[in-house]
Amino acid sequence: MQKEQKNKIFARIFLNLASKKDLKKILSLPESEAMMKEQWDAPVSTILSPETKKRLKQNIYQKTLGRPRIYRYTPLIRVAAVFLIGLLIGGIVLYSDIFTGSDPIFISVVSPAGQRTPVELPDGSKVILAGSGRIEYPENFSAECREVHLSGMAFFDVKHQKNIPFRVKASEITISVLGTRFSVASYPGDPVTETVLLSGKVQVDCPHKNISVTMKPGERHTYNNISKLGKISKVDASRATSWIDGKIIFDQEDIYNVCKKLERWYGVEIEIVNRDPQNSLFTFTIDNNTLNEVLVLMQKVSPIQFDKHDDVISITFSK
User: Fold this and answer.
1) pLDDT at 114
2) Can you tell me the distance from the alpha carbon of 92 to that of 89, in angstroms, rounded to the nearest whole number?
3) Strand, helix or coil for residue 304
């Protein structure tokens, strides 16, 4: 494995976005133990006593992915990710942080895969964070602006505050509002970032083209992270945000898009073994169904077989 690829995987682990396949790749390397030790022995660890380090190691094994994880940190302190064998039991990332009284405190909330996590922001605005998503915000908003950073998908119900705009940084775009309800999908690695507006008004800023567009309710803004271009289209906003109520609507989508959404929704890894000879398009709705129920449903409309092995679901198309 090339050094650049290793660095990318470690970056995903650090951001808590690594797949089980990423973790297996790193842990299968002969030098994995040395790499983990290097992370553990980073300069920040010299601040921690040996007893504290020992306690942190023990705590890793007590962590579970069944509840949201909330981290508090200061931007001026170097944050070191601790990579241990605990990664094997769920991809746990533990932050070590040191606080000073004068530095602003930031909060990072990570929603467990397959769950929806409610978050209340300092101004009273409500957020529903989709599984595997991360939202970061200051412990206290400033008097000039309320700004959050999103990685993943979230629904926002923003409390109106005159003259104090609310901004969401998602990938390369910024969504600015005063008070409204909207959804943003911004997953690392995805080719597009989507914003759907339910009520109110939002402004989307695309910095690379120095373009700002204003959205109306019932519209979707799609920003292409490759071409750096955005477009607005009409959309059924209630359908596009149905995931809030435990529903995902698939409408004429190929197997690759379906599996990508299922991975995020259920927190699993899905491997497509061979190409679909029929180029099937799937139209169905998940309504709080189990993953097994969804796979059985897909079998009824397409010639697929699925198999579970080592926490990986393999899908094979019949020839």
Assistant:
1) 81
2) 8
3) strand
250 contacts 258 by C-beta, under 8 angstroms: yes
- Contact call for residues 262 and 272 (beta carbons, < 8 A): no
What domains are defined for the chain?
Answer: 1-100 (no CATH), 104-244 (2.60.120.1440), 246-317 (3.55.50.30)
- Per-residue pLDDT at 238: 87
Report the distance separating Cα 295 and Cα 315, nearest Å: 9
Structure tokens at 225: 């992270």
Q: What pLDDT does 34 receive?
A: 63
Predicted pLDDT of residue 268: 87
Query: Residue 260 belongs to what H/E stretch?
Result: helix 255-266
- Residue 274's alpha-carbon distances to 133, 263, 279, in angstroms, are 29, 18, 12
Burial of 221 (0-12, 13-18, 19+ CB in 10 A): buried
Give pLDDT < 50 ranges for the chain: 15, 40-49, 52-65, 76-101
Partners of residue 314 on adjacent β-strands: 271, 307
How far is CA 69 from each of CA 57, 63, 82, rounded to the nearest angstrom? 17, 10, 15
Other C-beta atoms lying within 10 Å of the C-beta of residue 12: 18
Residue 124 identity (one-letter amino acid)? G
What does the pLDDT read at residue 67?
61
So what's the pLDDT on residue 302?
Answer: 84
Give residue 176's Cα distance to chain centre: 20
SS3 at position 63: coil
Determine the pLDDT at residue 262: 92
Amino acid at 292: N
- Identify whether the C-beta of residue 313 lies closer than 8 Å to the C-beta of residue 307: yes
178 token code pair: 């005063």
> Quick check: 113 and 92 in contact, CB under 8 A?
no
- Alpha-carbon gap, residue 41 to 33, rounded angstroms: 12
